[in-house]
Design goal:
This protein has helices spanning about 20-25, 35-40, 70-75, 85-100, 135-140, 140-155, 160-180, 185-220, 225-245, 260-275, 285-290, 360-365, 420-430, 435-440, 460, 470-480; strands at about 110-115, 120-125, 130, 295, 305, 310, 315-320, 325-330, 335-340, 345-350, 375-380, 385-390, 395-405, 405-415, 435, 445-450, 490-495. It has 16 helices and 17 strands.
Length: about 500
């Protein structure tokens, strides 16, 4: 979390899609990142606010042309560009090789490496490709990163973003004509709701189409076509690890990506049609050499997650989320969800005049109705605060605005249905505390280090992992190894070190 989480209109998360709908539609990362690149910088496509689950790279781009200003805003929303010349050089070379093997070898592409620990990649229709350092760290070899890039190139080649925009605009037009021109708001609302499902289904179909086309391009470029399935498996295991469960939660009907298991099955079948395992190259050694030393995980200066605890030394605050929540630190907010997705939370900082009442701050930064009788002044961890209840159609929200010195923070918890999340909300808000200088000194940046195995025992290298918990599980996932697997002495593996 970096500074004040605000939209272009300066009103926190107010404007465009309301926080109520945003929280209700968000996955672990989906609140900050929605289906299109323009959404990722703040704008929202109406009427269909289609959510995007955290477990998969996504296609982006609403406009037919994207300006340098849009590019700059998008890059800034992901923490800026990450400077790693060897890594970027490899990504660019892989992209060039894929483009020559694609259906549009004349298309020009530019790759940008983003300074974000989130595992994500996306493309704009004008040929800009983006990959986060979190995604680069997860990929196990050159063919796996090539699989991700081939998937995104397929979205551009197949003009998916433009097709989606046309469907969105057509749905919007029909809904407005029925509601406004024909004076039938009820039918207009029904059509709008139907369009949300149609758009979600359309997006899922696009993802599967891009998966298939990406595997074909991957193989045509000489890479291992089975790498797509390996990377999606690693992605699925990463999501499950973050959620603290054995399996990753699958998206709902409005998710724009198919279930990961379905995608793995599709790309594996596509690879088998090309040849047996072992066809193509993975170029593992070169890839590991190119990513050796890149930053891993959160930047301590922008806050870090340690298990269920979040600490931000720059802001001087910390809190702990209740059991069952997994949290993610994004540039503008801390987002959390339970494994089944029935409870979610958000923590951010909002601009507010210190003389303004905190009850007014809550109302000014929340677009949905707040039950007036529930607004009350409290003291949270010794700081003045205002809390309130808001009930949406499908979700119930507990809200708090807390003033710490000159800064004002929001703490929002959502529960699906009519259940008031107040008990868990009180535990969460009550954990808000100051970060001690001693604790600040323990927060050091971590990096990937490529080291050779000296034995076949994974626990030997897992003990070197500087991670908040489950070092062996994290080592296995990071290196694409199953539990019980043996290492190859002398072969290089990824570990996380300070």
């Amino acid at each position: 979390m970096d500074g004040v989480a605000k939209r272009a209109d300066g009103s926190g998360l107010r404007g465009g899609r309301s926080p109520a709908r945003a929280l209700a539609g968000a996955g672990l990362l989906g609140l900050a990142l929605s289906a299109c690149a323009i959404d990722q910088t703040g704008a929202v496509l109406q009427p269909a606010a289609v959510t995007v689950p955290a477990e998969a790279p996504r296609t982006t781009g609403r406009a037919r042309s994207v300006s340098d200003s849009d590019h700059s805003k998008l890059v800034a929303s992901f923490g800026g560009e990450y400077r790693a010349p060897a890594t970027l050089r490899l990504l660019t070379e892989v992209t060039d090789r894929l483009v020559k093997a694609s259906d549009r070898p004349d298309q020009a592409y530019v790759v940008t490496l983003l300074d974000s620990p989130v595992v994500n990649a996306f493309a704009l229709p004008n040929g800009r490709l983006y990959a986060t350092r979190g995604l680069v760290a997860l990929a196990g070899d050159t063919s796996e990163i090539a699989a991700v890039l081939a998937h995104e190139i397929a979205h551009v080649t197949l003009s998916h973003a433009n097709a989606r925009t046309e469907l969105e605009l057509r749905s919007q037009l029909v809904s407005r004509v029925v509601a406004d021109v024909l004076n039938d708001p009820a039918t207009g609302a029904q059509l709008q709701n139907q369009s949300r499902f149609a758009l979600a289904r359309f997006s899922r179909e696009q993802e599967l189409e891009a998966d298939g086309a990406g595997v074909r391009t991957l193989a045509a470029a000489g890479y291992d076509p089975f790498a797509a399935g390996r990377f999606l498996t690693a992605l699925n295991r990463t999501v499950a690890l973050k959620a603290g469960g054995g399996t990753a939660a699958e998206p709902d009907m409005l998710a724009t990506h198919p279930g990961t298991a379905e995608r793995i099955s599709l790309v594996t079948r596509a690879a088998r049609r090309i040849g047996a395992p072992g066809v193509g190259t993975d170029d593992r050694a070169r890839y590991l050499a190119a990513i050796d030393g890149i930053a891993y995980g959160d930047n301590p200066g922008e806050g870090v997650v340690r298990g269920r605890r979040f600490l931000h030394p720059g802001l001087g605050i910390a809190f702990e989320v209740p059991d069952g929540f997994a949290i993610e630190n994004t540039k503008n907010a801390v987002l959390g969800t339970t494994n089944e997705g029935s409870r979610r939370l958000l923590f951010d900082q909002v601009e507010a005049d210190p003389s303004r009442g905190l009850d007014e701050v809550l109302k000014a930064t929340w677009n949905d109705a707040i039950e007036g009788s529930t607004v009350e002044a409290r003291t949270i961890a010794g700081h003045p605060a205002a809390v309130a209840l808001s009930r949406g159609k499908d979700w119930t929200f507990r809200l708090a605005a807390v003033r710490v010195g000159e800064a004002t923070y929001r703490m929002i918890m959502a529960a699906k249905g009519a259940t008031d999340p107040d008990p868990a909300f009180r535990r969460w808000t009550g954990s808000l505390a100051s970060v001690s200088p001693e604790e600040t000194r323990t927060l050091k940046p971590t990096r990937l280090q490529i080291v050779p195995a000296t034995s076949d025992n994974p626990e030997e290298l897992a003990r070197r992992m500087v991670v908040p918990d489950r070092p062996l599980e994290r080592f296995l996932v990071l290196n694409g190894l199953e539990r019980g697997a043996s290492l190859k002495a002398g072969q290089s593996y990824k570990v996380v070190t300070e």
